[in-house]
Amino acid sequence: MPNSKLVLYSYWRSSCAWRVRIALNLKNVEYEYRSVNLLSAEDNEFVKVNPTRKVPALMVDDKPLTESLAIMEYLEEAYPDRFPLLPKDPIQRAQSRAIALQVTAGIQPIQNIRVLKYVGEQTPGAAPKWAAYWLIDGLRDLEDMVSRSAGVYAVGDKVTLADLCIPSIIYNAKRYTWNVDVSQFPILCKINDALAQIPEFQAAHPDKQPDANLNA
């Protein structure tokens, strides 16, 4: 367990930072929020924390941890008795990790600002349609995955690591930029609605962050 207060470097609408905020809330871990504006020029202070210039970064006893899944795994191991994020059953643990990876490694990376900026530079005006296509393709696979494991939540009837990854990807799909009709993914929508009733998920929502809409 860390000896000092954790510091989370975050951007209010970052999918990756969002899921880490949920994990911190569920684990009831106190932390300091430091905003990083991903849309601005390079932040020299943050580059020292994470040379890849990506959020989130979690400072633990002056040691920066990066990549959302790695951070969530750290929190699970550092605070094992506070709201376990992984089921005890090994099959359900694998299912939870697989669903999380489908979002974090399969769907979300191609929605990154840097990726979409490059697509737009190569083919002006193409980024929104391109992003929507891959969102739908990835969500279709994700819907099939959760159909095999879901109860109230993505894996059974308890919140797991998988669920922490769902709100942000549904939120992104519904944004006006992509305007994806998420009703074609009824299981994911049902899970997302259930998660939206949980206070720790509500508190992690982008609109509740101190830098919300300041750096839109």
Automatic annotation (TrEMBL):
Q: Per its UniProt record, what Gene3D superfamilies does this chain match?
A: 1.20.1050.10, Glutaredoxin (3.40.30.10)
State any single GO MF term: glutathione transferase activity
Give the superkingdom in one word: Eukaryota
Q: What is its EC number?
A: 5.2.1.2
The protein's annotated catalytic reaction(s) are: 4-maleylacetoacetate = 4-fumarylacetoacetate
- Print the keywords alphabetically: Phenylalanine catabolism, Tyrosine catabolism
Q: Which GO terms describe its biological process?
A: glutathione metabolic process; L-phenylalanine catabolic process; L-tyrosine catabolic process
The UniProt entry, under CDD domains, shows: GST_C_Zeta, GST_N_Zeta
Gene Ontology CC terms, in alphabetical order: mitochondrion
Q: Which residue numbers delimit the GST N-terminal domain?
A: 4-83
UniProt pathway: Amino-acid degradation; L-phenylalanine degradation; acetoacetate and fumarate from L-phenylalanine: step 5/6
A Pfam family that the UniProt record links to this protein:
GST_C_3
Instruction: Report the cofactors.
Output: glutathione
EC category: isomerase
Location of the GST C-terminal domain: 89-214
Q: Look up keyword Isomerase and say if it applies.
A: no
Q: Which PANTHER family match?
A: MALEYLACETOACETATE ISOMERASE
Family as reported in the entry's similarity comment:
Belongs to the GST superfamily. Zeta family.
Q: What is this protein called?
A: maleylacetoacetate isomerase
Query: What organism does the UniProt record list as the source?
Result: Angiostrongylus cantonensis (Rat lungworm)
